[in-house]
Amino acid sequence: MYFDHGYFMGGMHAIWWVFWLVVVVAFIAIWSPARGRRSSDADAAPLDILKRRLARGEITPEAYQQAKDLLERDADKS
């Protein structure tokens, strides 16, 4: 039943090490902070953020227009 100095089926021990290595690498790849990194809102202009929020339905068109007017008014003061 046992071959190759006690390892079942000759290489099963090595296969399990490879299996767990793949599992750990996959886990790290899935939960890595760099995975799927999109452009953050911190890098975007305020008007672009406002447009994205309107497109996602987070704000109403009226709230968009009000915030846009406020941003443009503040930009004119600078």
Written account of the structure:
The chain has 78 residues and is mainly α. Helix content is 62%, strand content 5%. It has helices at 12-31, 46-56, 61-77; strands spanning 2-3, 7-8. A two-stranded antiparallel ribbon has the order 1-2. A hairpin with a 3-residue loop joins β1 (2-3) and β2 (7-8). α2 packs antiparallel against α3 (61-77). It is rod-shaped, with a radius of gyration of 27 Å. The termini are far apart. The model has no long low-confidence stretch (mean pLDDT 79).
What's the SSE blueprint?
Layout: E1 2-3, E2 7-8, H1 12-31, H2 46-56, H3 61-77
Antiparallel strand pairs: 1-2
Overall pLDDT: 79
Structure annotation, total helices: 3
Shape: rod-shaped
Order of helices and strands: EEHHH
Helix fraction bin: 55-70%
Read across the widest sheet, the strand sequence of neighbours is 1-2
Q: Note poorly predicted spans.
A: none
Determine Rg (CA atoms, Å). Answer: 27 Å
Which strand-content bin applies to the residues?
5-15%
How many DSSP E strands? 2
| Cα separation of the termini | 83 Å
Largest sheet: 2 strands, antiparallel
Which class do the helix and strand fractions yield? mainly alpha
List keywords for this structure.
78 residues, mainly alpha, 2 strands, 5% strand, rod-shaped
